[in-house]
Design goal:
Mean pLDDT: 87
Number of strands: 9
Bound molecules: copper (II) ion
Distance between the termini: 45 Å
Largest sheet: 5 strands, mixed
Number of domains: 1
Low-confidence stretches: none
Length: 140
């Protein structure tokens, strides 16, 4: 191998490593919960990108956050099975970790695109979703 070739291989390897690291970059998402709504620093996400969600409850009662499909009218109200609901969530932080003033975090990478209307942040503490505690998001 000539000197030039060795140099080229080193450059190529360095380039690949940089590209790999670039792909691993985690994006912080800041979310604030109130009565009754979500504020999020990002609502348009990209599939395959790792996100670090930092969630703060700025309200005065317990809240939770779930990433899931919007509920149908028929699923709302008292008949809702909380455990079945939890299983449909892509990711969540339960209410006991989000007491008033608390901050909790989780990491999540969306695996597939979600067009407008198919995914949202939602709080399913009884009555909150019905009070409007949801925020539509999209994934490209
Ligand atoms: Cu809530």
């Amino acid at each position: 191998m000539s000197k030039f070739r060795k140099y080229f291989v080193v450059l190529l390897t360095a380039g690949l490593l940089l590209t790999a690291c670039g792909g691993q970059k985690t994006n912080d998402v800041k979310i604030t919960l109130t009565e009754f709504g979500f504020e999020s620093s990002i609502t348009d996400f990209k599939a395959g990108v790792p996100y670090h969600f930092v969630v703060t409850n700025a309200g005065s009662v317990e809240h939770e956050i779930m990433i899931m499909a919007p509920l149908q009218e028929s699923q709302m109200g008292m008949a809702m099975d909380m455990e079945a609901l939890d299983e449909t969530a892509l990711a969540m932080i339960e209410a006991d970790e989000l007491t008033p003033g608390a901050t909790a975090s989780f990491d999540y990478t969306f695996t597939e695109p979600a067009p407008a209307g198919s995914l949202e942040f939602a709080c399913h503490t009884p009555g909150h979703y019905e009070a409007g505690m949801m925020l539509p998001i999209t994934v490209k």
